[in-house]
Amino acid sequence: METPGSQSSLHRANLERVVRAVRMAGSLTQAEIARSTGLSAATVSNIVRELKDGGTVEVTPTSAGGRRARSVSLSPEAGIVLGVDFGHTHLRVAVGNLAHQVLAEESEPLDVDASYVDGFGRAEALVERLIVTTGIDRKKVVGVGLGVPGPIDVESGTLGSTAILPGWTGINPSDELAARLGVPVYVDNDANLGALGEMVWGSGRGVRDLAYIKVASGVGSGLVIDGQIYRGPGGTAGEIGHITIDEAGPVCRCGNRGCLETFAAARYVLPLLRPSHGGDLTMERVVQLAREGDPGCRRVVGDVGRHVGSGVANLCNLLNPSRVVLGGDLAEAGELVLAPIRESVSRYAIPSAARQLSVLPGALGGRAEVLGALALVLNEMGDSTLLESALPASTPAFT
Ligand SMILES: [Zn+2]
User: What are the pLDDT digits (tens) for 278-289?
Assistant: First the structure.
């Protein structure tokens, strides 16, 4: 047993700090590691050498600000992460490693609401197939990130709202998948995973305070505060779709009137266009027509942008994020939707809260959630396995 405060437990704590910093960021120079951990340059240098000798990290030459530097990342051999994302109409699986490299991805159509047994069976089969095609060693899988299209109750781990996925009532998705795959499973909702995916691989890179807003069949958001997803005690944080825009507006599925969702979500917006544009209209098609110059679709996309923008303005006043990333089909509309969002923000947000804000379209499209599932494992996994393999118990403390 290590005594708290002893040389060896201090050394181990320092190792953990370095591994955690690199694990979350993907790669960092030694100077960046020193800055983010608060350790001295000499200590970082010793620890990196030790981790490199143990095979936990790789060091490659790079340049930072015109000077030669050494970039540190976890070794691709150190572990494998899997991502499984259930959307309402698809299943997507990704395989990555601890060096933040995505090795394989595949998706297939799936009626998720129909049967969870069928859904998890298909997920297991797709994971098995990707393990075989990538030739990875399954013993190296350290965890699976799982995305579900509804809020997860933080305490019970079950789906919070039965109205959203009626076929999944009462089941615990992470237990279900862990039993099939035999590895730890970390679960979160699609909006939080979209935020993580964009932060690690997309439009939110390098930003520690951001909101990912997904406008699709509903309107949701994932909030990242100081580099961490903010979920709130019940796991419900980020329900931007249900802020009130008009107290006398249409009744929302949540029971209130005039929520943002009733002005922006596909189920409320498409009926506005169906009389003039036909009954089989989808949001994807509306965006395409708007880009081609169709005046009705442009009008609707612009109006959605204005309303989402007042939600973003409220968010700015409360949280002062430095970036908002727009996901979902609507992001494909580019400036047709982003300009009205920015306009509403400048009209309704306190200037100091909006000054440093940039509003960008998501860079990952429909991949944001499954890549976020990989990032969730990188975020939440512990470092003990990594350190155990790198460090024999007798390693002398020298920092
Ligand atoms: Zn509502």
Answer: 989 999 999 999
